[in-house]
Amino acid sequence: MSCCIMDLQPDYTEARDVAHRLLQSIREGLAHIGLADAIDGRYDKWIYLVIIVAALFLAMYLLRWVVGFVLHRIARHRKAAFVRELVDSRIASRILWMLPPGGLHIMLPFAFAGSTTTLDYLQRICGVAIIIVLVSILNTLATIFWHTFYDNSRLRNRPMKGILQIVHGIIIALGCIIAVSVLINRSPTVLITGLGAFAAVLMLIFKDSILGFVAGIQLAQYDMVRNGDWITIPGTIVNGVVVDVSLNTVKVKNYDNTTIMLPPYTLISQPIQNWRGMKESGGRRIMQSIIIDLNTIQFCSQRLIDRLSEQAFLRDFMEKSNIGVYAPAENAVPQDALSASSTETNLGIFRRYILHYLSVHPDIQHEGYTLMVRTLEPDMNGIPLQIYCFTTTTHWESYEIIQSQIMEYIAAVLPMFDLYPFQNASGRDYIAQSLIAQGYSPEDAINGIHSTLQDADESKQS
Fold this sequence. Notes:
Layout: H1 2-8, H2 13-32, H3 44-77, H4 81-89, H5 91-96, H6 99-111, H7 116-151, H8 161-184, H9 188-195, H10 199-205, H11 207-221, E1 230-232, E2 239-245, E3 250-254, E4 259-262, H12 266-269, E5 273-274, H13 276-281, E6 285-292, H14 302-310, H15 312-321, H16 334-338, H17 346-359, E7 372-375, E8 383-390, H18 396-413, H19 427-437, H20 442-461
Antiparallel strand pairs: 1-2, 1-5, 2-3, 3-4, 6-8, 7-8
């Protein structure tokens, strides 16, 4: 059996002769430049080392160019996601980095056969280099398989990046333990056992990473936050879109283009508002109020009905509503007042008209969504009239335009129903009050203010 093994061993005689002739030429060249000690063979082992390292790196770069060219040609003809990930991650280049330390580890005994200590140290260094390259390869492979699985699964919208970072951390930690064990020539189990004594210190050092890992699992398990979600945290300046969720940080880009970094456990330790449901539903809520002056609310009169019926855009509504004048009989009892329709006040008619206006508005959801116009509890300023509905779009700019148009229309139509909003007095109100005190009617006082302002503008322009 031993004879067979000896027969199978390669013959290095020719390789040794070539190396010897090459070294002899190098010795003569060194002697010509003044290094006489080179002829004695003092530099043999280091010249071997330089030649081996140079040859291995040259071979590695040549193979990287060839493999890269082949992979790009394959990726150009095959559009598979896995092939594209292989090319983008440069996994072939990382694998070829195993060639210099691996080949050097194998060839070192030829150069340092007589120097056991030096050979042992150099081989340990090569072993550490191999472990570093191997860790890089494993992390790259984990990233490739992760992206291939993550992009083609139903979990692609969930913040699972922290799990990939945990896998990378485990691989790096194991690589460090094995590399240190190679350097000190001890078993890795001895180091792992010794790390147990530093468990408390390690937990203190990696506290944020541990909390982030636990928070990342909860965020992914309960689908609390995804990339692209609009979130707000009450009491903070967080109000924007989630850009990235990693092991230690959650990056949020606010709408003022500022970026906020949050620890992941912040999202599970305090309440947050996620607007994803609003976007997925297809409708965004409008809940706005306008305060009506209580002094302007009155029973509906025939004059008001006739005036409203003369308006082209109100005529159809008035005819279909069949609104009557509230005129209780002389012998009416309190029960008759309780059964009277609330639409027989100008506020009731207006409220019903706004509900009709929203029900036919093209940008308001009509089916499956709440749509109402209601009055809220009166306060010292008046009675709030609230609009509660949902738009057909969740786009921010479009939503704001629709909401503004509705509120502007309500403010413009309000005086036609003899209703006026409450607002604090301004300088124009005091001028109108003084004109009324001098005997002018309210209409003349308002018209006088307008004409005075127009004259002032004309005089400025002239």
